[in-house]
Amino acid sequence: MKIAQVTPLYEAVPPKLYGGTERVVAHLTDALVDLGHDVTLFASADAETRARLVPVRDQAIRLDPAPLKSDLAAHMTMLSEVLKRADDFDVIHFHTDMVHFPFFARCADKTITTLHGRLDLKDLPGVYERWPGFGLVSISDDQRRPLPRANWKATVHHGMPGELYRFSPKPEGYLAFLGRISPEKRPDRAIEIATRLNKPLKIAAKVDAADKVYWETIIKPMVDGNPLVEFVGEISDHQKSAFLGGAEALLFPIDWPEPFGLVMVEAMACGTPVVAFRCGSTPEVIEDGETGFLVDTLEQAVAAAGRAHLLDRQAIRARFDLRFSATAMARRYLDVYSDLLAKRPFAEDPVTDVVTPLRPFEGKSFAAANL
Question: Nearest 5°: phi and psi at 150?
């Protein structure tokens, strides 16, 4: 199958530091290549991929030192490049929210769009009503709630390559917080949980410009002078195994409808249990009492973090391998692509231009029969 992957341009693929969507695109792309498919990645030139790379910007936007830049212009340039090559692909998989809809209306039936963000925004329903021909993939069932009538084709949970994360059977006794310093991520709750338990807390997080006031006025005063709390700052993929694997538990004390929460899966890959507030996607990711604990109050979170060391870390890693590997994610997306292709009565040979009927399923999946 000839597949195009179209990523946002804010971070490298995979990101050098913090970043979720581009990291998922990187792992999905490589897994599809490993499964034998012909994949083209449209991304910035600093991408690292096993696919064919079409560079559309010299580097990702966020770490570009240029003081003046236009993210809209960068994405329009990329979409123009994808549109020029659209006939080269069986499936074009977008990860760019809805910005491509006006460009690709004529060939919407060969596209899949994964939505990676929150969908409870005022202006979104009108967009998905105006362009209903684009098939959508959610990253959790909960993510769909604000747009129940959108053209949903599937839910595909994120996956990560297991070899990127080192299993750690013996933690070092601290609690961990990994993500962004922002009100919806609630690092203040993490600090409170650790303080009540008298356990060390390590915070590895970036501070966006939009959250600097929150950091300076709320979180930094809670960190400064607190001997239990260590602010590590933003870390890369190469540092995550040690950081997450050394933790007795990952604290995920969110206060918003988290569409997925990739850090929960990263922790599980290291064998580290997750204490997560029951919000957004967390009940779909965490198996309560098996891979972590789901809580509703701060008191419950304190109690859960205090008994997280009792969970079987080897079993947590095994659940990651079964549910959240990059290969498992890629196979689920191949089913989505196959469903898309199955709606076409004929397939055109890309070499000879001969139109022939698609092969029957013969008891196999469409992917196995025709790919």
Answer: -70, 170
